[in-house]
Amino acid sequence: MNTNVISSFIAIATSISFLLLSPPSKSFYHSLFLSDSLSCNQSIANHLYILTKRPHVAGSEANAEAAAYVLSTLTSYKVRSHITTYEVALTYPISRSLTLKPTPQDSPVKFDLHQEIYDGDPYADVADEVLPTFHAYAKSGTVAGPVVYANYGRVQDYAVLKQMKVNVSGNVVLAKYGKIYRGDIVENAYAEGAIGVLIYTDRKDYGGVGDAKWFPDDKWMPSSGVQVGSVYNGAGDPTTPGWPSSGLCERLSDDDAEKGGEVPLIPSLPISWADGDRILRSIDGQVANDDWQGGKDAPVYKVGPGPAILNLSYTGKQVITTIQNVIGIIEGVEEPDRYVILGNHRDAWTFGAVDPNSGTAALLEVAHRMWKLQEKGWKPRRTIIFCNWDAEEYGLIGSTEWVEENREMLASRAVAYMNVDIAVQGLGFYASATPQLDELLIKATKQIGRLGGGGSDYSAFVQHVGVPATDISYGEVTSIWGLVALQLADEEFLPFDYLSYANELQRSVEDLKIELSEKGIKLFPLFNSIKELRMAATKIANEIKVLQDRNVWASVSKNDHYKVRELNDRLMMAERAFTDREGLPGRTWYKHLIFAPSKHNDYGSKYFPGIDDAIEKAKSINTTDLWLAVQHEVWRVSRVIKHASLVLSGQLT
């Protein structure tokens, strides 16, 4: 028999023997992860119950106890875990008061600023541990003046007031919560000359319509309910911008922190829709537009100013206190220096049953299932890291400090970051992601948004370092979250699709072309760089396919292992190339030039945020120099897209 034929038979027999004797495939373990045999709803429910027994704001004893619980639970699942602490500046309320004088003839109305406890509340015995309603990092002070109603307090709302000849300067602004981040509501009011801000939750938005019932009979916010939160516009400890708050570190003084422009400069308070309704009934002046009006049974909303006079007083204290991140690690076998990171925050303004501790319970369940997989023989290719952040509610502080401290390690090793804050809020599924992760998520959802906003702990990963990321919420989160993590950790080739990225960028530039059609801005640098990105994405996809086809039957050579690593490095590092060391103009912490929060809404996501900021400024003042600044930002974005193309192609110029 021909020796070549014999060799072929031997090779085939060897391959078949190898397949028969090989351990189960990664996909087998991934299917097992989704099976009922590994899931335990009772375990998730128990985690959630324990984590939410007491209010646990950042810096509190209760939150430290919750951290200890997360640590002990991860440890019980054989996940190597530890606590990383930071000493950060947090604020707490000392005193608050709000008085309304409807007219000079009327007696003052003093608001009690108290959230009512409903009959039968099972947590009534610990209700006194809830902090009084306040805004974190609000400016301490006392102000008095006529009140102006400013709708949602957006830039466009103040433009409407200007058209109505309503002067905000020297007045107290009353604004609805809902469309933009509350810190931007305060900042926008300050920019218009307001001396103080009240933010209320309007019944039309949060109290239900018609005969809707309130909590606890339904989901709607009761009349005394208040939306509390931070009004700090930055990320991380405001006294350590850009560096970690560890040990005896360098700190800015309070005055220098205020000069940074992220800390509010006028006092503010959150109030209920019942209190907001009482104030609105005392405002006279022009009738507000139809889309500014309330719902059924609401008074006619007028814009003022006055005649009602509001006296707002707030005193807070800022303290340096300890926060605790819990970090758990399952080390990868083949690529231990490549990190797939799952994150969720733990701290809450009150009990945190939905946001964030449903997500914390889901995080622990993912860890539990992975422990069970390990018992059955699974070993991840790459390292999986569980992160339970502290002080997110104050301004993404725990995650930001950790990223700033580990910036270089993360920049060179992090594959992706996946965040979940909410896991039990109704049916359905929603995910935001950087575009190369779209195909990975598409089987789970057709509603993929973008991670430009600064709404949660993905911010430092994407916008400061340039790590691909996703933020998942609602529905069957534990299964989806864990499965995506397993695929990122185990797939030989990272499941990143940069053709999706190029197509997204192309659509965004087409929109920009329409917006700038008569402004003389040249967009060819963007179109050209996106074309290069598409070519590079196609090239690397073809390289991967060739290698996959070659290794279907043949044993993987040592050179192929090196090639796989090199291709994955290019896929991993391409997102970093979209960052620029100088950051966005006036917002240098944000390094990503493709995605970042809107300048006037920290919750809003913007493509090409530097271009967008420059356009808004040029439209408002309309000078040649400002339109040249728009063109400069176009060139900057085109350069980082070209850098990403070069990284993907893997070739020097």
UniProtKB/TrEMBL annotation:
Output the SUPFAM superfamilies linked to this UniProt entry: PA domain, Transferrin receptor-like dimerisation domain, Zn-dependent exopeptidases
Per the database entry, which stretches of residues form a coiled coil?
A: 502-550
Keyword Transmembrane on entry: no
Transferrin receptor-like dimerisation domain location: 522-648
Molecular function per GO: carboxypeptidase activity
Q: Which InterPro entries match?
A: PA_dom_sf, PA_domain, Peptidase_M28, Peptidase_M28B, TFR-like_dimer_dom, TFR-like_dimer_dom_sf
The Peptidase M28 domain sits at 325-473
| Keyword Electron transport tagged | no
What are the residue boundaries of the PA domain, all occurrences included? 143-228
Key words of the record: Carboxypeptidase, Coiled coil, Glycoprotein, Hydrolase, Protease
Which family would the database say this protein is a member of?
Belongs to the peptidase M28 family. M28B subfamily.
Name of the protein in question:
Probable glutamate carboxypeptidase LAMP1 isoform X4
Q: Which gene encodes it?
A: LOC113691869
